[in-house]
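Q: What would this chain look like folded?
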Amino acid sequence: MKPYSVIVLAGADSAKALGAASPRPCVRVHSHAELVAQSAIRRFAIAFVDAELLPQIDSRQLRLPVVAIITESARQLPGAVEALAAYPWLSHTLAASALANAPAAREYLAQFLDRVFQGAEHRVLGASGIGRIAMLASANRREERFLRMREFFARHKLSDRTATSVLEVAEELVMNALYDAPFEAGYFKTAVPRSENIELPQEHACEISYGIERDEVFVRLRDTFGALARSRLVEVLARCSTTGVALDETRGGAGLGLWRIFSAASTVSITVIEGQVTDIIVSMSTQRGRQAKALRAIDLFFTPRPAVDWLDSVVLPNDLDLLDQSVTLIVRA
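A: My prediction, written as structure tokens:
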């Protein structure tokens, strides 16, 4: 395991909360110059910076990932979008309120830092979780899958309201994977209206998985095109943040939906390997209350590299036909 360091350029409250939640000791700095100096003497490091201090950062002097801490609870999503739009080198945001629950924050940070420094696969299920996984190649067959999803969530006592929100997110992710991703990758020469059916060959079927882990429910969608661009994603979110959700005529008139996805989520993790895979995981809290439902973190992993180690570990069972079927997700020891 790589000996990474956590550097904090933040106010006293954020620094204290990070110190309690971080799986590694935190080094607090008080200026950009100190941040640069600390990063220079630490081979593997990550910086957590209050969003208000981002204008001080000169990314050309840094060789480390930066996480923006969004301190205004009422503006977690707009604040995160503003930061991502203003700083193209920024890939991660974290709500300061998410650090209040130290045990939960520690678990999130441990997995997040593993991904950053180890290139590890994003685990969605722990020992207490349960889920399902399937492949989907036909837009006309998606309603069958969504019905099975609803039955699965009802069986595991998820509220109707939360199940409906998860299914709305799943609908948008599936439609993006079947319609938008093939077009943006050049597989379709023209955009296909969402009113028409899509039938992709099995090798381009998207993978959908979903499940429940303690007080979180998730839906995950992977496509084989790897066509989502960070600039496009942030542009759409920024436009929705300022003008509202509208139709995007450049994508066949499809509803953007992304703002609704981010608005419903507690965490969003997006991994794109150009030309190979787009992997989107949306987690939602099953707890009640406005704060429990608020967006806690956005993690963006975009790479032009042709392959990464963790992708080789993503192997679906080869003795089962998962096309329009499903199998239970399990946690490997």
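The first strand starts at residue 5 and ends at 9.
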